[in-house]
Amino acid sequence: MQLDADGGRPLEMVGRARQLREIKALLGQGTTAGRALLVSGEPGVGKSMLLGEVGRAATGAGSRVLSAVGVPFETELAYAGLHQLLVPLNDRFECMAGTHGEVLRGALGYGGDSAPVGREVTDAVTFLLRQVAAERPVLMVVDDLARLDRASSAVLGFVARRLWGSRIGFLAASRSGAETFFGRGGLTEYELPPLDREAAVDLLATRFPGLAASVRDRVLDQAQGNPLALVELPAALSGPQRDALADLPDVLPLSPRVRNLHASRVAGLSAEARRLLLLLALDDSGDPGVLRAGSGAPERLTALAAAEWNRLVTVDGTNRRVAFRHPLMRAALVESSTLTERCQAHRALAELRAEAPERRAWHLGSATLVPDERIGALLEEAGQRAARRGDAARAVSVLTRAAELSPRPADRGRRLARAAFLAADAIGDLRAASELLDRARRADPDPTATLLAAATTALLLLNGGDGDIDMAHRLLVEAVGTGTHGHDAEDDALVEALRMLRLVCWSSGRDALWEPFHTVLDRVRPTAAPLLSACVEASADPSRTGSAGRRESDRDVAWRVVRQGRQGGHVRRHVDALMHLCSEDFAAGRWDEAGTLADEALRICEERQHSFLSWYFEYHQALLAAVHGHLEESRSLADRITHWAVPRGALGAVAFADHARVLAELGAGDYEGAYRNAAAISPVDRIASHAPHALTASMDLVEAAMHTLRTAEAEAHVRAMREAGVAEISPRLALLVAGAAALVAPDDGAVGRFEQALAVPGAQRRPFDLARIRLAYGQRLRRMRCVTEARAQLVAAAEVFEHLGARPWADRAAGELRATGRSRTGAKHGSVTLTAQEQEIAALAASGLTNKQIGERLHLSPRTVGSHLYQLFPKLGIASRAALRDALASLPPSAGS
What we know:
Elements lengths: L16 H11 L8 E6 L5 H14 L3 E6 L10 H7 L13 H8 L10 H16 L4 E6 L6 H11 L7 E8 L12 E4 L5 H11 L5 H11 L3 H9 L3 H4 L13 H8 L7 H13 L13 H13 L3 E3 L6 E3 L3 H8 L3 H14 L4 H11 L5 H17 L2 H13 L4 H19 L2 H14 L7 H13 L5 H14 L9 H17 L2 H13 L6 H11 L1 H4 L9 H12 L4 H18 L2 H17 L6 H15 L2 H15 L5 H18 L2 H11 L11 H4 L1 H10 L3 H13 L7 H14 L2 H12 L8 H17 L3 H18 L2 H13 L16 H11 L4 H8 L3 H15 L7 H6 L8
Parallel strand pairs: 1-4, 1-5, 2-3, 3-4
Antiparallel strand pairs: 6-7
Helix pairs in contact: 4-5, 5-6, 8-9, 11-14, 12-13, 12-14, 12-15, 15-16, 16-17, 17-18, 18-19, 19-20, 19-21, 20-21, 21-22, 21-23, 22-23, 22-24, 23-24, 23-25, 27-28, 28-29, 28-30, 29-30, 30-31, 30-32, 31-32, 32-33, 33-35, 35-36, 35-37, 36-37, 37-38, 37-39, 38-39, 39-40, 39-41, 40-41, 43-44
């Protein structure tokens, strides 16, 4: 581990693989191909670490590495840097020909008759380095070049420009824009950028694994990808602050060492310049209008010029926006100011932001030291606006400050309860939510005061407690029944409480729990929120409401929510969107994407503390395992869901697990087990109430019943589907109803029924369902001795199953084809079709990456990567990873899909 010269603390090498490759490429083969490179970057960006990594790589490759670091108190000591660099070569001075050895001993303080001149030292150093490089390559590594003494800088600058054709390399690092005695002319420079968000998140997870999500997002926002800032900002927080159990300041604090380091850079500026910088730090918008809050125009321009000259800020030449060069400078300025100075600055900014209500409210709140309901109300409104905009972290901070300024306990409790709900629902920070909820209750002990307190308690119970469905249900029903909301459809607290109650009822899988929900919903006036009503119809009882809820056209909307969630957006909406996409992807045959999204969702549920819905994504993993033929894995996942759900009363989850079992058993040919589990989801003579998953399992039940000679039960279920109007709910369900009807049709009417099923509009968009119907059609035709027609259906089904990777069904179709006298599906012998994701995984595995490394790069779990490789090997006709490279090279260009 390398110490960062800019910060002095060890930093892990995270997110710098690309930059490391680029630096090595610029230096040339072996890093010592007679080239010189200067690496620049802001303080704390990780220059020292990269230099250390390059040096270690060069040493490992057999090079001799000579290193030096610029030291402030040695800048006036001639050849101090050169002394550091050449110490390992001292024993060679005596053996050097001519006067070179004597010159070096004199320059470096080892004796000599007279002080050598610069050109003599340069020639001696060049001679020495070339002599050493004749034995093995040499790499000089100089860190903090700006602090190297003048004499050493001059010598090394001369040497670095004359390396071509030698086996000597030169690598140095310096802060961006720093003045140095080193001549840069003609040398290649490399600007080291900040870490991207993904790497920044990884670094925080490595150094501070228990950091609360809301605190992590604040750190990410303030650090702006600077590794030193990412390490220092959380380290300066207290334990409760890191756990989100204590409030955070507007600008996160620094450790004394780093604060003093940055504050010293502004100590020499004028009072007006420091005031201007404090205004910019507290505003954090970069808006040049902030300059109007200063004194007269000449003073403002002079102050800004001084800040630019000292490389503290930059001013965009196009839009005139002002930005701090280093992310820690804001914190240093705020911490080094007095309370009076900060209050004055906030008041000036509030006056300046009269046309921006949210910013004005925040600055007024920051400038106010005693309770003030007027400002508290302004902050509450600002917090609600931030929440509607999707900035939940900002909303929580603003609402918390509004509560602190609230003179009345009821107002304080209401505002804290709203902040608690957002922390749990939108941010996924249960610790912060629990603390805020406790504060709300202490402020206003009345348990009926706010529905959001009840909704938050239910969220905490489901995600952080034992997940008891019945307890959460009683809590929410009581709160909704005794609240003062007046059943007002515009009361957002009522809407959120009903959302929570809907989730509880849906997860319960029990009709009785829905009754109080529908009673309240019927009383809402003027009408319930459209989105809530649609969700209720879809999740409660679609066979009786005729609603399928979300449509496939919502896919773009769902993806937009997912992208926002990946950038730290609303966590519950992120999870909801992933639920929708997983369901749509499975039905549409986008199984690779479905698996990737299920992995992502499980990671989000764990990281963002929404664990209650993890079972839903394990269900999708179980479905995918079943259709791919990994039957034991599918059964294990289904059993895991059941063992989790039964003690909590989440019988809805049990029914979903049963659906995964049904598919696994159908794939294995265990039709008796499939029938038993399908009948547990829905009775054969009717469609189960409040069980939307009973609709998608309907054809499965009919297929299992027919294979176990339960013709009467199969026909009864088809009648129930028709009577419930299931086909009118969605195109997919229309296909399943038509397919089920074809399965029970007698031979003399079967062809017509199957052709009707194949002609259902949109059937091609449901490839697995359609291929299963074709398989059943082909089987029926073969038994009816229509061999040619049977082959056509079986070939079409087999091709789809092969493409999807539905191994059990592909094998069954192949068996049926053999029974018709045809042993192959018509594909060319040895032809292989890989999906884009399979190609990518195979290429990465062939390059030597482990399953874990591939998963990290593609956002997949190692198990999913292993599953893909397990399916790839037989496709490619190989048995190990070692054969992957040759197998991929032999594929034709059209092998990828």
